[in-house]
Amino acid sequence: MANEHEAANMAHDAGAAAAEAAGHAAESAGMPQLDFSTFGNQIFWLVVTLVVIYWVLSRIALPRIASVLADRQGAISGDLAAAEELKAKAKDAEAAYDKALADARAEAQKIAGEARAEIQAELDAATAKADAEISARAAESEARIGEIRAGAVEAAEVVAKDAAAEIVAALGGKADAKALAAAVSERLKG
Amino acid sequence: MSEAQGEGLVFHPMDQFIVKPLFGDGAVHWYTPTNAALWMAVSVVAIILLLVIGTRGRAVVPSRIQSVAELAYGFIHKMVEDVAGKDGLKFFPYIFTLFLFIVFSNFLGLLPKAFTPTSHIAVTAVLAMLVFVTVTVVGFVKNGAGFLSLFWVSSAPLPLRPVLALIEVISYFVRPVSHSIRLAGNMMAGHAVIKVFAAFAPLILMSGIGIAVTPLSILAITAMYGLEMLVAFIQAYVFTILTCVYLKDALHPHH
């Protein structure tokens, strides 16, 4: 860089070619931007640069980035759709579960009701049977009591006849058994 | 540059912009590999590294470099679509080329000892003229003579329209000038200011006042460098979005 500057000064001193002198004068005096001798060079390299960048971008970089972005967009929307689908499935499953639960509850209710009815019926039947038995027993007992009562009456008649015969004998009479029995029966009826 | 050769401070803030051959001291011909050519090539290499090597994986879940490349792509793609409309997307590779070249030149030019191609009016004028010519040709090809309605402000009162048309035509032709000088001027000014502060930095080696001046100038260089980072991006952004605006005028000239 120092060399360049010295070269510029030397060129200045030596009074070299007019254009070069003007160029270097512009360099040392003010703005190198206005040194027109470098314009061709800059414009040439700029055009080369822009063409290269444009070529690289339009052939390689931009299609690649665009496809990556499209892939990502596709992946994201695909994932979102899948998530939506899974959510719907989960909702369906929940509904099915709820329905199964309600069914089971209804079933349980029904079975309980049936069991209750069955038990009630059994109970009723047992009660009826028991009632019937009780009344049968009661009737039987009544019959027995009647029998016993009849038996007692008969026994009392026999005892009365015997007692009457004993009494008659004790009193010294001789009682006809047949007449005695008739008299006792007469008295008991009376 | 030949700084402070014993005789005190030497200011050469503009020497950094000198275009010189890479090899030898000869004249600068149009084909000579110069420092300008070198730094343009560095930009190209950086762009290839970012956008081609960086996206080599084509990963659905991107690496860091790939996400930067995608970010740049999305940034300019959205800008073109928003400003110039869907039919402007045909020009997306072209606009992206301009943006990448400018943004990489601007940032690489901030490296110490680097050369900034975009600080030269020769470069920015070519960029601006490319845009101007493209936009004008596209305007006439797409709309025929209807493109001239760009200059005929139909929403203005009729007597005013010829005056406005004159102003519109002048402003249309001034576009490439402002477009190019804005970029080159910003780049040049920032670099020159940093260089001026840099010239003050070695004062501490020469005089007592340097104790105050040297830290201040170093601080100023740092601050300017930060500002220049911002400017480097903003100027690339401005150049690109103005290109999109001009393109929109060409595609849809009716106000």
Automatic annotation (TrEMBL), chain A:
The chain crosses the membrane at residues 43-62. Its main location: membrane. One of its GO terms (molecular function) is proton-transporting ATPase activity, rotational mechanism. GO terms for cellular component: endomembrane system; plasma membrane; proton-transporting ATP synthase complex. Keywords: ATP synthesis, Cell membrane, CF(0), Hydrogen ion transport, Hydrolase, Ion transport, Membrane, Transmembrane, Transmembrane helix, Transport. It holds the Pfam family ATP-synt_B. It is a single-pass membrane protein. It comes from the Bacteria. CDD domains: ATP-synt_Fo_b (cd06503). It is found in: Cell membrane; Endomembrane system. F-type ATPases have 2 components, F(1) - the catalytic core - and F(0) - the membrane proton channel. F(1) has five subunits: alpha(3), beta(3), gamma(1), delta(1), epsilon(1). F(0) has three main subunits: a(1), b(2) and c(10-14). The alpha and beta chains form an alternating ring which encloses part of the gamma chain. F(1) is attached to F(0) by a central stalk formed by the gamma and epsilon chains, while a peripheral stalk is formed by the delta and b chains. Component of the F(0) channel, it forms part of the peripheral stalk, linking F(1) to F(0). The b'-subunit is a diverged and duplicated form of b found in plants and photosynthetic bacteria. F(1)F(0) ATP synthase produces ATP from ADP in the presence of a proton or sodium gradient. F-type ATPases consist of two structural domains, F(1) containing the extramembraneous catalytic core and F(0) containing the membrane proton channel, linked together by a central stalk and a peripheral stalk. During catalysis, ATP synthesis in the catalytic domain of F(1) is coupled via a rotary mechanism of the central stalk subunits to proton translocation. Belongs to the ATPase B chain family. This is ATP synthase subunit b. It comes from Pseudothioclava arenosa. The gene is atpF.
